[in-house]
Design goal:
globular; 3 helices; mainly alpha; 81 residues
């Protein structure tokens, strides 16, 4: 009888940030909220874009706005704890 082996490959685009970078960013977001300074989605988009520029990480962005795109943020928020 043949076994049903599931593939460990991920579906979708390759992630922009490494797992370590995603974990670090999510910890910072959570910590800010815990101390009473939650950030808005707009601030998150700007901070991620700035981080990407400083670290040569190609964050998908909104042209002329200097911030990460809506789709990127939505995807990020789906994968963080």
């Amino acid at each position: 009888m043949a076994e049903n082996k599931q593939s460990k490959s991920k579906v979708g685009r390759k992630t922009v940030l490494s797992p370590q970078q995603e974990k670090e960013l999510s910890k910072r977001i959570i910590r800010l909220a815990q101390i009473g300074c939650p950030i808005t989605l707009k601030v998150l988009r700007i901070c991620v874009f700035t981080y990407g520029e400083k670290n040569n990480v190609p964050i998908p962005f909104v042209k002329g706005k200097g911030m990460a795109g809506h789709a990127w943020v939505e995807g990020f928020l789906l994968v963080i704890p």
